[in-house]
Each structure stands twice: as structure tokens, then as C-alpha cells.
Amino acid sequence: MKKGVTLILLTFSSFAFGQINLLDFKNSTCDEPTLFSRLRTRIVKKEIKDDVLTVEIATVETCCVTFEPAVSTKEGILYLDVRETGAECECDCYYFLTYKIQGIKHKD
Q1: Fewer Cβ within 10 Å of end Cβ, the chain: N or C?
Q2: Model pTM score
Q3: Closest CA to 17 of 56, 48, 51
């Protein structure tokens, strides 16, 4: 089983990070595309309203597991991570992972 599965780094030059807080995390159900080996982890959506950042990531992960999200910042970089937990299995799925993070502010 993978321990640190998806790590996305986001750098924002026009935003400042205060005390960040993960407000919500959701993952889609398993989608088993026929060519999942050709799919790459990528940011599908990134939106900031007030001081809440919503990021949606598309990625291929192990099926039949649950996800534990983690967010942190260091030197102006936002780190989004997810760890797989649960019983191991021999299959992969295509997932959408959605993070809602509070504490992102415009530099004014």
C-alpha cells in the first residue's frame, strides 16, 4: 500500500497564507477507466472565495481504500497530501479529490 500517495504543491505569488485549516475533504467514487495508466495527477479546478481555497485534483490511486488528507505550508508553498488507509488490494481507480482550505488571503 502506498503511504504518501498524492502530493500537490501550489505556489501563489499574489496570496498569503495565514493559519490554514482544512474545512472539508471529499473523494469521488472509484472510476475504472480503461486507460488509467495514461492518466496523470493534475489540478482540475482551483478557486478562491473570501479566504477559502477549493482545489480539485484528478489522480489514480489504489481502489478499496480510504483517504486521510493533510495540508500544510512552508515558505509560501501549500502542500496537499493524501494517505491511503485500509486493506491492500490489487486494483487502481481514477479519483477526484477535493480540498477546501481556509486561511488563504490576497496580498493587498
Answers
A1: C
A2: 0.80
A3: 51
Q: In this predicted model, what pLDDT tens digit does every residue of 11-51 receive, in sequence order? A: 555 556 678 899 999 999 987 765 666 778 888 998 888 88
- Residue 1 domain flag: no
The predicted-structure confidence for 91-101, as pLDDT tens digits, reads as follows: 888 889 999 99
Is residue 75 in a domain? yes
Where in the sequence is the domain holding 59, given as residue range(s)? 6-106
C-alpha cell at 91: 486494483
Residues 36 and 71: their CA atoms lie apart, in Å, by: 26
Does 82 map to a domain? yes
Amino acid present at 56: E
